[in-house]
Design a protein that fits this description.
By secondary structure, the protein is α+β, with helices and mostly antiparallel strands. Helices cover about 55% and strands about 10% of the residues.
Length: about 200
């Protein structure tokens, strides 16, 4: 999807975004989930080198705008990955709460209609739009039925013990290898996207 010709994201608006650390201090929930995903994300040497090389180019992805909300599992998994990518590459990351910045979200709707998050928007050093990435990697979409198999069992009339058991299974999934592979796939997809657009 092409970005609108006149973007609300001016260089001045971008600069108003928060650092990842400041954004995280402002969230009202899931801080431990953000930290677990941040701690669990590793940027391999090859990816780090490639990303640094991309950012160093005159028209490379020097800046990233992130839209998110703390309640969203795709955000508490994906935004820490983007924070790691930014750290490894030297990219400037600015985070915005989606619901406070609907005008920005309106420019990057998923399939032109969904306010999907996280959304990462990449710009050159002189603030030329390069690309954006939305929500989750393709691998996660393919494997989502495994997660829905767990969460789909939750019902309002369910006994508290059963609800607790299902929630525990969900937490274990988030700490397991499938969830970790989605973080890794996010790094690979972002690298591939930036190589295609800035290469």
């Amino acid at each position: 999807m092409a970005q609108q010709m006149e973007s609300v994201v001016t260089p001045e608006r971008f600069a108003q975004g928060q650092s990842y650390e400041t954004w995280l201090q402002a969230v009202d929930r899931n801080q431990e989930r953000f930290q677990e995903n941040y701690d669990g994300t590793r940027i391999g040497d090859d990816d780090a080198r490639a990303l640094r090389d991309l950012v160093a180019r005159p028209d490379g992805p020097a800046k990233c705008l992130a839209l998110g909300e703390a309640w969203c599992p795709d955000v508490f998994r994906g935004l820490p990955v983007m924070a790691r990518v930014a750290e490894a590459s030297g990219m400037e990351l600015r985070a915005f709460f989606r619901d406070q910045h609907k005008d920005i979200m309106a420019e990057f709707l998923h399939h032109g209609e969904h306010e999907s998050i996280p959304t990462f928007v990449f710009y050159t050093r002189d603030h030329r739009y390069l690309a954006h990435w939305i929500e989750r990697p393709a691998l996660a979409n393919e494997q989502m039925p495994a997660l829905r198999e767990i969460t789909g069992k939750l019902t309002p009339e369910m006994a508290p013990e059963e609800r607790k058991r299902i929630i525990q299974a969900y937490i274990e999934f988030q700490n397991g290898p499938t969830w970790a592979s989605w973080r890794d796939a996010t790094v690979k997809e972002i690298r591939a996207l930036l190589e295609e657009r800035a290469g």
